[in-house]
Amino acid sequence: MTRIFRSPSAYVQGRHVIDNIGEHAQTDGSRAVIIADPAVRGIVGDSIRSGLEATGLTTDFVDFGGTCTDSGIDRAAEEAEGADLVVGAGGGRTLDTAKAVAARHDTRMVTVPTIASTDAPTSSLSVVYTEEGEFEELRFHGVHPDLVLVDTAVIAAAPIRFFRSGIADAIATRFEAETAIEAGAENVFGGQSTRAARAIARECFRTVEAHGESALAAVERDAVTKNVESVVEAATLLSGIGFESGGLAAAHAVHDGLTRIEPTHDATHGEKVNIGTLTQLVLEGRDIEEFHDIVDLSLDLNLSVTLAQIGLTDPSDEQLRTIAEAACQPQETIHNEPFDVSPEAVREALVTADELARQRRNTREPG
Ligand SMILES: NC(=O)c1ccc[n+]([C@@H]2O[C@H](COP(=O)([O-])OP(=O)(O)OC[C@H]3O[C@@H](n4cnc5c(N)ncnc54)[C@H](O)[C@@H]3O)[C@@H](O)[C@H]2O)c1
Ligand SMILES: [Zn+2]
């Protein structure tokens, strides 16, 4: 019964905080390497570079484009040889690659999420994919970023679809952490969860439930309101701590299963996770009122609720079997559910959640 809670050492969030990255990074080293894809480099590259150079660091860029794969990590690690500080800037795939590079070289690490699309910026692990884009494994580094630096002006100006995806990832955090805690399952660190982690997972959900709609309206106009700040914190800090120190369950395992099917590859992480959350609720036999509450919240926030919305318009039996079997692999967090889970049960929960969500959406559509 060992309780374990871990987190990044520092979290700094606000409008234009990137300009002071050197000051916040607090490194004694001399050389920083910035890993970013060309699009992200065009948006924040100059600010990161000048912010770091203002404190006496030299900087080099490593171009990253694509998925977080072993070959991508190897390539970036080679270019980052000799760095004292690794800065990853971008979405989850770039940050996961940068975290793996920093862990390999044992350097200080700063994540600069430029979209609030996932909780990858704060976690101590990377999600590694095969060259074909299928989920391969969670790779645990044993260290967190030294700093998570979140510039909300950059996030609000990014495409809104990513902001929605981060909200979906944050909703899952509460349901998975609560399930894992109630089941007495281990969290990501192999310990029991703390009361702090449970409170954080719940506050994460409460924040996106209360402020998500207003925040989305603001981001639609590239505005950074107080509610945007709150939702960015929920999707990045609270969700990251909530899932790692709280624990995962069925929702992310279903997500992992969905990545095995090519038609879902254009859907974002959060869009697939939301289908996972709804599937988890059916799998757990929750009351229909609770299921409808989450579908309604999803519809209010324009999150995906049906398989068709993530590219699976008419899934074949074989596709559903592939998803369900992958979700039930022995290492998957679906086994944190407080009952035995079979691929058949997952397949049936998945199609039932899809049907229930479709029916609910139809009742809400104007007449
Ligand atoms: N390590 C973890 O704990 C963890 C948690 C959740 C998800 N993930 C992983 O994160 C990945 C998904 O990340 P994602 O959803 O951020 O997608 P992503 O990393 O593919 O980024 C999506 C796109 O956003 C673009 N982009 C980034 N910032 C932008 C900006 N400001 N304006 C315009 N475009 C911008 C990028 O160029 C990229 O093409 C998956 O691989 C998933 O498994 C990891
Ligand atoms: Zn996630």
Low-pLDDT runs: none
CATH topology of the largest domain: Dehydroquinate synthase-like, alpha domain
**Number of helical elements:** 13
Average residue-wise pLDDT: 96
Number of domains: 2
The bound ligands are:
nicotinamide-adenine-dinucleotide, zinc ion
* Number of beta-strand segments: 8
Pfam family, one: Fe-ADH
InterPro entries: ADH_Fe/GldA, Glycerol_DH
Cofactor: Zn(2+)
GO molecular function, one term: oxidoreductase activity, acting on CH-OH group of donors
Task: Kindly summarize this structure in a few lines.
Its cofactor is Zn(2+). β4 (85-90), α4 (92-105) and β5 (108-113) form a beta-alpha-beta unit. Helix content is 52%, strand content 12%.
Descriptive notes:
Glycerol binds at residues 119, 169, 252, 269. Keywords: Metal-binding, NAD, Oxidoreductase, Zinc. This is Glycerol dehydrogenase. Its cofactor is Zn(2+). InterPro entries: ADH_Fe/GldA, Glycerol_DH. The chain is an alpha/beta fold. The protein has two domains: 10-157, 3-Layer(aba) Sandwich (Rossmann fold); 160-364, Dehydroquinate synthase-like, alpha domain. Helices cover 52% and strands 12% of the residues. It is built from 13 helices and eight strands. A six-stranded parallel β-sheet has the order 1-8-5-4-2-3, with helices on both faces. α6 (160-182) packs parallel to α10, α9 packs across α10 and α10 packs across α13. The chain is globular. The site of nicotinamide-adenine-dinucleotide has 27 residues, from α2, α4 and β6. Nicotinamide-adenine-dinucleotide is lined by residues 37, 39-40, 43, 68, 90-94, 96, 114-115, 117-120, 123, 125-127, 154, 158-159, 165, 268-269.
